[in-house]
Amino acid sequence: CLEDKLCTYNVLVRYLIASGQLREGISKSTNVLAQLGETLPEHVDNTLYAEEVELVKRSLMDLSEDDLLNLPLMTDERKLACMQFMNIVMSAAYCVEPLLSPILVFRMVRLSIDHGVCNISTFAFGLYGAWLVSAVNSDFEGGYRMGFLAISLMNRLEANEFIPRVYTSVYGFINIWKEPFQAGQVKCLEGYDAGAMSGDTEFAVSCLFQYASCAFHSCGEDIAMLETSLRLYIRRAIQCKQEYSAKTLVVLHDLILRFMGSKEISYSIFFDTNEEAFYQEGLEKSLMSLCRYILHKRKFLAFFNGDMDVSAESFEIASRYYSGANARLSHFAISTVIDGLIAFFFARKHQGNENRWRKTGEAVVNLTRQWATNSNWNFINKLYLLEAEHFFLNNEDTKATEKYKQSIKAAHDHHFIHEEGLAFERAAWFHLHHGRHGEALVSFTESKKCYEKWGAHGLVNYIERTVAGLNQVQKTR
User: Fold this and answer.
1) Residues 129, 130, 135: CA angle, nearest 5 degrees
2) In the predicted model, what is the mean pLDDT of residues 125-133?
3) What pLDDT score was predicted for residue 324?
4) What is the pTM for the complete model shown?
5) Burial of 250 from C-beta contacts in 10 A (0-12 / 13-18 / 19+)
6) Which of left, alpha, beta for 301 (phi over 0: left; psi -120 to 50: alpha)?
7) Are 389 and 341 in contact (CB under 8 A)?
8) Mean pLDDT score of the chain, rounded to an integer?
9) C-alpha dihedral over 189, 121, 175, 65, to 10 degrees?
10) Residue 346 and residue 381 in contact, taking contact as beta carbons nearer than 8 Å
11) 367 Cβ contact partners less than 8 Å away, ≥ 6 residues apart
12) Does residue 377 carry a pLDDT above 60?
């Protein structure tokens, strides 16, 4: 009978996902769920998605957080099995089926309400909170409350084996939109430790990626120390046979090596391959999340090295990848801010596509302003920088100058050394555009100091080359 085979199917699905066969894992799990009476759609379109949203909202209607926290325990063995298989394929769906991932969350939440809660429900409510703060909703207050509920329920059920999964959803996806980026870092490491102890290697490694990505992109931690840690994280992911997570860690590691000015290639070190092969494999296997991250890496690196054409090309390609209603990690925020900076740069060229670029930049300003309302600490310096670039575009020099200063101060006060350096650098180009060579040189020098403190010697070299070129031009005049 089916019940006798569930353990075997469980092991098989876990193996398929850990080995990078994500679609195969989803297909096998979908087949098992159908036999258990929980049919998942073969294809999720916008109409079906809207119907599922309505159903889960109807289930939650009139239920307070206390009501949810005190739901009875789930006892139906088949429903428990359904929860287990949806739980197993959640990360795979996030990577390759952007619209299926929230459907799984909605189904788990509804099962918990209709049939009682189990340990997996803690993860389900955390992911529902992550969906609430996603781009399609931006309900940061609602998501924050749901994240608190997930942790409270986890404590009530003593579901310690779900710490890595709950911490991933709450501290990786939700709280970054309300609390300082730095506040959740220790929880990511605790999530790794808990996963290593319980055997949840998939989300243990996920916690390591969230920690490292946030440390680099959002917190501006010393990247030399981070690079050393990442080598260990990648080896652990490979040892735990978490191939997909290992690859995302390698993309991040290679980005950090480039910022450090190293000639080592992370792809070659750990997989004996190169980035383009990684990217093409992602396309072939529909690993959209990995492809988006590689494009983010290319855009990020090109932008900081002054190659605006390549950064714009990566921006254009990445915009074709639909992220759906999935939650957003912290690197999404700085990536979006860079989109705005790219847009204002090309709008200032006053070419035929100026209006399109202007609208793109202004949309990012409005979005960042919304984020700053919910977390002044994380986003106000980014908003000031975008506003400075907007005033630069509009030839409002006095206002632009003030906003650059405000961005620099906010980044410094909130310990974002990398973004302080970026604000100084953008101010330098602003001054240079208006012929203020002295002010530009001072700003470039301060930017270089920030990048040196960050450990980004590759950027230091770029700034030095830029300044040397400018000085040579001045001598020839």
Assistant:
1) 120
2) 96
3) 55
4) 0.93
5) buried
6) alpha
7) yes
8) 94
9) -140
10) no
11) 336
12) yes
Tokens of 35: 């036999």
Which whole number is the average pLDDT over 215-222? Answer: 96
The two structure tokens encoding residue 385: 């920088």
In this predicted model, what pLDDT tens digit does every residue of 305-321 receive, in sequence order? 999 999 999 999 988 77
Say how far apart CA 17 and CA 9 lie, in whole Å: 12
CA distances (Å), origin 132, targets 59, 71, 102, 140, 172: 15, 21, 10, 7, 14
Whole-angstrom distance, CA of residue 285 vs CA of residue 365: 35
Distance CA 302, CA 213 (A): 18
Q: Which two tokens stand for residue 207?
A: 């916690």
Label residue 46 by pLDDT band (50, 70, 90). Answer: confident
Tokens 């799990």, residue?
29
